[in-house]
Amino acid sequence: MKAARAKTPRRPALKKPSNPSLKDPVGVYCRVRPLSRPDQECCIEVINETTVQIHPPEGYRIFRNGEYRETQYSFKEVFGTLVVQKELFDVVAKPLVEDLIRGKNGLLFTYGVTGSGKTHTMTGSPGDGGLLPRCLDMIFNSIGPFQAKRFVFKLDDKNGVDVQCEVDALLERQKRDAMPVPKTPSGKRQIDPEFADMINVQDHCKVEEVDEDNVYGVFVSYIEIYNNYIYDLLEEAPFEPIKPKPPQSKILREDQNHNMYVTGCTEVEVKSTEEAFEVFWRGQKKRRIANTQLNRESSRSHSVFIIKLAQAPLDADGDNVLQEKEQITLSQLSLVDLAGSERTNRTKAEGNRLREAGNINQSLMTLRTCIEILRENQMYGTNKMVPYRDSKLTHLFKNYFDGEGKVRMIVCVNPKAEDYEESLQVMRFAEMTQEVEVARPVDRPLCGLTPGRRLRNQAFREELSRRLEMRGGPINGETEEQSVSEMFLQNFPPLPSCELLDVNDDQTLPKLIEVLEKRHKLRQMLSEEFAKNVLAFKTMLQEFDSSVISKENYIQGKLSEKEKTISGQKMELERLEKKIKTLEFKIDILEKTAVIYEEDKRNLQQELENKSQKLQRQASDKRRLEARLQGMVAETTMKWEKECERRVAAKQLEMQNKLWVKDEKLKQLKAIVTEPKNEKSEKPERPSRERDREKPVQRSVSPPPVPPSSNFTQVPNSQQLASNPQGHRRSNSCSSISVASCVMEWEQKTPSHKPTSGTPNARSRQQEPGQSRGCNTSDRRRGMCWTGVVEVSKRRDELEIEEDQCCRGDVFKTRGGGQAVQFTEIETLKQESPTGRKRRSSPSNADPPEGAADSEWTDVETRCSVAVEMRAGSALGPGYQHHAQPKRRKP
Length: 891
Ligand code: ADP
Ligand code: MG
Description:
By secondary structure, this protein is an alpha+beta fold. Residues 118-119, 299, 337 line the site of magnesium ion (MG). Magnesium ion binds at residues 118-119, 299, 337.
């Protein structure tokens, strides 16, 4: 049957232990060897079970200016010179062997300068076996009865182990027996006397509580690291006596579980302590030969003896090994005898040897560095890279420090004075190493089968043989085999009588020969047939096995695929769950935000409503106010309109009165003017007041004037004016041609009426001679300009104000060669006398009221709206214009 592979119990997939608290420090023990000679100076003292004291030797003290300083170093345990190998083994190595059998890894190495007793401690001396043979002895004492048959376990070349059934193991054994390879001594053979007393430990030390339901297989390998090269000390090279080939170095590889192993290294399955030690001794011999042949410094090489223990559970019957590779456990114990730790110059090496020694020293330096960095990382939490790969030695044991296992170191010191300085170095390194922690190996998982299977099976077999014995049948395998052979012999032709009674009997022997030949042929035939059957059966089995394996592989592949898918889906699930959580968190936040916003919105709406209500209120207030204001405005407007109307009416009345007065005056003036025309002697008829009053009423639609007091006061003026015609310098507006011409004639006749040039009126006219507005007496005398001007002076308040009013009009040529005047305005000229001197006053100059002048003008305008034909030969030019205030309508 095909072998099943098994994983080693190491679990490097978990590079760092899951529980970092489960760590153990590297166990460092110190062994002080006795002095070679009693007269030697001693510099190391064992103070107590855990402490040694080192003091500088006499010579050293002198050399160092008398400086004397004792140093103490503490270790897990210190072994003095009197300590025997067994004691050391019990304390240091026994727990490692126990761990090995429980499926855990261990590393034990000796460290110290050359001659300090490393090899003595590890290997032992004749008659005093060291840790190595004791470990082997303990292992075989413990697992002896439960060992699997040879070749049931098979180590592969990738640091793995296979298990195969006993039939295959038997066939392989037969094959190996047929080959001319050196055989390890079986238990029955004589032990090599060279090391016989080293393994004769007689302790019968064994591990308690060994799992009896397991079967065990022990494999040993022995390598040497020299000059940073790995050599297999168990490799069988063809013997070449003339020129032996130098040994080939091996390389290190990492297996699928990240454990380091030496590729192609010989691993020998051993079944007893003797056999194992014989293998070791073979390696030792080879090492010695190589050192001699290659002129090597033997103390500068590291030797590593590796014990691998494979164990697999029995099947449910407790009869055969369970053919399940997952159930196989492979643990290993490495026993390392390191090279001397002293500095190179001390060994007086030369040339190549010096270089090689340097290399070896280098690997020890690397070991120190690795341990230092490990310690630093563990103590200060740093994550510096540990340079395991810098040397083969550290690289090989990387997993012990990096992964898990139990590491123990025995520091060997020679107390002699010459080794003082080197011993100090060793002590320092050893003390530091104690601070490094290594993950504690986990317990091997249980196989799941009922314990006590082996015992039950044994009990069953015993019972069976007892019963067979009672029946008288075969009681053991031997009798069984005999009966089978008897049955087999019965098929052969019976032998004839082979008694030779006569010398001349020539029949018996030929017959016998014939029968024997027949039997021989038959036997050959049968054996051939048997071999054929065996072969056929074997091929059948192999086919079956391969089909099972292929199916298994297929299923495994499928399983791994499914596992991958499942793990992928799990990861995806985890991712999605995380996402869901994140989204839920976001939703939560958003919901909270939305609530806050809604609250805000409500508040704002409320505010808006309040404001709009307020606004509406304000608008209605405004409307009310507007209405009230409009009412007020209307009221005020009405009031003012009424007031205006009232005032206008009053004004109108006043005006009408004035007009009436003017008319009256004009009538008087007319009367004066027309007087010489009719009869110079005839006195003008003074119009009665009643008649005069009626006139404006007839001409104007305005209501009859309420005669103000001023109006009445002017009446005497007009009378004065009428009585004194000299006072009328100018005629006021001319309502008809005859009036105008009369006025002019009158003016020409009365030159004495020339106004005083000194008067402001005259002055103002003379100031602007070029202007058409200007109109003076000379102009009028020459007949160039006719201006209907009434000069009215009136007294106002205390100031003497002289006010002249002039009627103005446009003069233009008529077609008939004459000139026409169109009255356009009235000009009022006022003169104020600041001196308050009495103004010349004449009845004709009596000031009519303002309103009277206006109404007079209106009257003139009305009456002179038609052109006035001037006298022929008049010099009045057409450009003679008079500008004044715009026409005012009658109210
Ligand atoms: P190393 O391997 O460190 O170079 P060895 O183990 O070869 O040193 O020891 C050198 C010598 O000292 C050997 O002859 C050995 O028998 C002896 N020796 C070392 N340690 C002890 C010891 N504890 N008791 C007695 N002899 C010892
Ligand atoms: Mg040695």
